[in-house]
Design a protein that fits this description.
- This protein has a single domain (about 1-145), classed as 3-Layer(aba) Sandwich (Ribose 5-phosphate Isomerase B, Chain: A), CATH 3.40.1400.10.
- It contains six helices and five strands, in the order E-H-E-H-E-H-E-H-E-H-H.
- It has helices at about 10-25, 45-55, 70-75, 90-95, 115-125, 130-145, and strands spanning about 1-5, 30, 60-65, 85, 105.
- It starts with a strand and ends in a 6-residue tail after the last helix.
- The mean pLDDT is about 95.
- Bound molecules: D-ribose.
């Protein structure tokens, strides 16, 4: 897969390791920054990642900040994005199985590098269950089409 990855200064400490991990699984990574541990603002990195995914220019997105929450909040404002903040193996699994999450948001304050790698792998390898869950995704898409601007960019 082609995976867009972004982080803020909090996530920067693990960025290189996570990129290498994704490469070791055979995935290609688009590095959307940040590029140093200097304090920065997570929306500046979440939006490019979400855009890659929204436009079909990346298959999935991974976002890393302190908690994953800021990244998730902004990523979910981009059309077609289903960003999930995952803080356990179980939430990573269900994010794919039930929500077909196309962006995974992780936090360095809630998980270490091994946790993140394990959760990324679970999220990437778990299949969407479809069926009643597809009906719910259809309702999200319907809401987006009805109430959200075609593109915010
Ligand atoms: C940065 O200090 C921190 O607020 C950010 O990384 C993230 O946790 C926000 O949700």
């Amino acid at each position: 897969m082609l995976i867009a990855l972004g982080c803020d200064h909090a996530g920067f400490v693990l960025k290189r390791e996570i990129i290498e991990f994704l490469n070791s699984l055979g995935h290609k990574v688009i590095d959307c920054g940040c590029f140093s541990s200097q304090s920065c603002d997570y929306p500046d990195y979440a939006v490019p990642v979400a855009n890659y995914v929204s436009k079909g220019k990346a298959d999935r997105g991974v976002l890393i900040c302190g908690t994953g929450m800021g990244m998730g909040i902004i990523a979910n404002k981009i059309r077609g994005i289903r960003a999930a903040v995952c803080y356990s193996d179980e939430t990573a699994k269900l994010a794919s199985e039930h929500n077909k999450a196309n962006v995974l948001c992780l936090g360095v304050r809630t998980s270490n590098a091994d946790d993140m790698k394990r959760r990324i792998k679970i999220w990437l390898e778990t299949q969407f269950a479809g069926d009643r869950h597809q009906k719910r995704l259809d309702k999200i898409r319907y809401f987006e089409n009805k109430h959200c601007k075609k593109s915010i960019l």
